[in-house]
Structures are given as structure tokens and as C-alpha cells.
């Protein structure tokens, strides 16, 4: 993976290249941004830039397979794997990880968990992984130059592991570069953040996403433009939208059932029971689908708000079930949108962290009823 394989982010690429050219590479850096913005492929391209400064063909060949001896990876894992009682570390799934990065570099943590079939397990970066990292980085560089460690999902590092790595991040061995990659820095302890140079990776603009869809998925200009606007700066989401038309129809049916039931909750006695049944239906699918559905709901509400404010050029949603967006739009103003988005994002947060789906979605459905009926 090279810089040209990373969509957009030209200003960040130039900055990273200049740090290598001027030998001003910070020993600890924190890349923060949504996975769909390309934060992981950006870190991998930067690692190639550092390790292959001599531009040798052998170095690039090794990086093409993510198998350079001085490039190390760490990522969230369950406490143990299979029937083994030994502590799980990233080395166990290194082959699967390399394949995942090569084929799904914009993928999320749930995508990774699904790839290695650990969706129902609590994955973190634990102290056993921290010990392995320290052991690897204590060794001399194989090629005699830099060693680079990429820690993906650094915001899933537990406190014990973070404290274990603190000294290493503060004073790593000579010519050792540590790149932490995270969707958010909220769960990274301050003592680590304060020792890192922070690179904030923004959402991608729609034009960049559209170009990526045309290049990699051979979509038409019209198709890619519509999907890119829908994706809200997230290339991973755009790829999913391009592949999940049947799923979108199911999501629309769930959404319409939800808001219609919420609207009649004041006058229909059975509405609360209907909302609980709705929550049970959504909770019955896997967590990844729940999260995609809740993101779909955020976008549906956003489209309704744009229509309410007469921003017709930005409205691309055309419900297939006969649901009239123009009649729904007046109920979604800016203030309601803020409340709706917070409720949905909170639900996503809790589901990502293995909360009980029935409880989270029931609370969400009742909370949405209050919002829609508020003055």
C-alpha cells in the first residue's frame, strides 16, 4: 500500500513525506480518524515511506505483502482463542491480518472481528500483547534501519496494557517508530496522548469517494456521486452502500415501522408493546447489521432535515416503500436532529461495546418517541 492507494488526504500525505525527507519523524504518532477515512492505509503507506527510503525493489516487494521484517502490527484480540488457555496475541492471526489489510484496508473493527470469527467475543489489546510488543521492539532492526510498529485499534487498549507500554512510547529504542491508529482518542489515556504527535484524519469529501468508487468498483459517475453523498465522508460505508441494495430496503422497512409506531404512541395503547417488538426484531440480527442500520437511520433523519430546510440539491434519498419523505421532513428540524443523532450514536457506542441489544434498542425506541412528540 502506497500513498497513491490512499484516497484523498493530500495535505497529510505531503506532511508525512516531508518528515521522512527531512529526517524529522516523530518516534510516537497517533493517527485519529474514522476507519472509512483511510487512517489505516495512510499509516501503512507512511510505514513504507519510512522503511523503503532507499526505494529498493526488495523492500517494496516485502511491503506489498506486509511482510517486511522491521514492520510489526498489533491489533485487538480476544483474551484466548479456541480451547487454548494461553493468552491470545496478534501473532496468532498475522496471516489473516495481512490478507484483511490488503483486501479491506478501509474496514472497521467489526469487519475484522467478522473476518476471524470473533464477533461474539470481547476483543482488546491486553497486557500479553503489550509484552509481545516490548519484546519485538527490543530486538535490533533486521535491515539496520528503522523499525515501525502499527497499533491498529489503539483505543481498544485496556489500561493495564497502556500502562505497560507507556515507558516504551515515551522512550522507544533507537530508530523505532510507533504509529497508534484509533477512531477516537477519548479512550486513550492522557499520559500516552501527551507523548504522541497527533495526526487528525478528516472525513473524505464526496468527490474523492466518488472517484474511488469509479476506479475500484467500476460504478458510473452518476451512481458513484449518489452513493458518495450518502456515505458522509466514509469510503467503507460507500462500498457497503454499493453492495447492499437489498439490505437498504430491509433497513427502510424497519425505519418506517419505527417512526410510524413512534408517532402514534401518544394515542395508541399498544404502541409501546409494538416498539418493544420492533427492538426485539433488530436485536435478533448480528451487531454489525444493527450498527449499519443505526447509521442508516442517522442518514435518513439527516436527509429529512435537508428536505425540511429546502436543500433539495443535497437530498438523494428516494424511499422505495411509498414512505413520503416530504411529509416526514417538517418533523425533523435542527434541534430535533441533534437529539436524534445523539440518541443513535449513543446506541451505536453501546452496541459496539457488547451491551444488550434488546435493552439498548428498547431505550432508543422510547427515547425517539419523546423526541418526535416534543414541541
From TrEMBL:
GO terms classed as biological process: DNA-templated DNA replication
InterPro entries, per database record: DNA_Rep/Repair_Clamp_Loader, P-loop_NTPase
Signal peptide span: none
Superkingdom, taxonomy of origin: Bacteria
One Pfam entry name: DNA_pol3_delta2
Protein name as annotated: DNA polymerase III subunit delta
Amino acid at each position: 500500500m502506497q500513498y497513491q492507494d490512499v484516497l484523498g488526504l493530500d495535505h497529510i500525505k505531503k506532511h508525512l513525506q516531508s518528515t521522512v525527507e527531512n529526517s524529522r519523524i516523530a518516534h510516537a504518532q497517533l493517527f485519529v480518524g474514522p476507519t472509512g477515512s483511510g487512517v489505516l492505509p495512510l499509516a501503512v503507506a507512511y510505514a513504507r515511506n519510512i522503511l523503503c527510503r532507499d526505494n529498493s525493489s526488495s523492500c517494496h516487494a516485502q511491503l506489498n505483502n506486509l511482510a517486511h521484517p522491521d514492520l510489526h502490527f498489533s491489533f485487538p484480540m480476544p483474551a484466548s482463542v479456541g480451547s487454548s488457555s494461553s493468552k491470545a496475541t496478534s501473532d496468532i492471526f498475522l496471516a489473516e491480518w495481512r490478507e484483511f489489510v490488503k483486501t479491506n484496508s478501509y474496514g472497521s473493527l467489526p469487519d475484522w472481528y467478522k473476518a476471524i470469527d470473533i464477533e461474539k467475543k470481547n476483543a482488546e489489546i491486553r497486557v500479553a500483547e503489550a509484552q509481545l510488543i516490548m519484546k519485538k521492539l527490543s530486538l535490533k532492526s533486521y535491515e539496520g534501519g528503522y523499525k515501525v510498529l502499527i497499533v491498529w485499534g489503539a483505543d481498544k487498549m485496556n489500561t493495564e496494557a497502556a500502562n505497560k507500554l507507556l515507558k516504551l512510547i515515551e522512550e522507544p529504542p533507537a530508530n523505532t517508530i510507533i504509529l497508534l491508529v484509533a477512531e477516537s482518542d477519548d479512550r486513550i489515556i492522557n499520559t500516552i496522548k501527551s507523548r504522541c504527535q497527533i495526526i487528525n484524519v478528516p472525513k473524505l469529501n464526496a468527490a474523492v469517494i466518488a472517484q474511488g468508487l469509479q476506479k475500484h468498483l467500476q460504478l458510473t459517475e452518476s451512481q458513484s456521486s449518489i452513493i458518495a453523498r450518502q456515505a458522509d465522508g466514509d469510503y467503507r460505508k460507500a462500498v457497503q452502500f454499493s453492495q447492499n441494495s437489498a439490505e437498504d430496503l430491509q433497513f427502510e422497512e424497519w425505519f418506517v415501522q419505527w417512526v410510524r409506531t413512534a408517532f402514534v404512541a401518544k394515542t395508541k395503547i399498544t404502541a409501546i408493546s409494538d416498539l418493544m417488538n420492533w427492538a426485539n426484531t433488530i436485536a435478533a440480527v448480528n451487531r454489525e447489521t444493527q450498527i449499519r442500520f443505526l447509521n442508516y437511520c442517522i442518514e435518513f433523519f439527516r436527509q429529512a432535515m435537508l428536505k425540511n430546510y429546502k436543500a433539495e440539491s443535497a437530498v438523494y434519498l428516494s424511499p422505495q416503500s411509498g414512505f413520503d419523505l416530504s411529509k416526514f421532513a417538517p418533523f425533523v428540524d435542527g434541534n430535533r436532529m441533534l437529539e436524534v443523532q445523539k440518541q443513535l450514536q449513543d446506541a451505536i457506542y453501546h452496541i459496539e461495546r457488547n451491551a444488550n441489544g434488546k435493552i439498548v434498542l428498547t431505550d432508543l425506541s422510547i427515547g425517539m418517541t419523546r423526541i418526535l412528540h416534543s414541541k
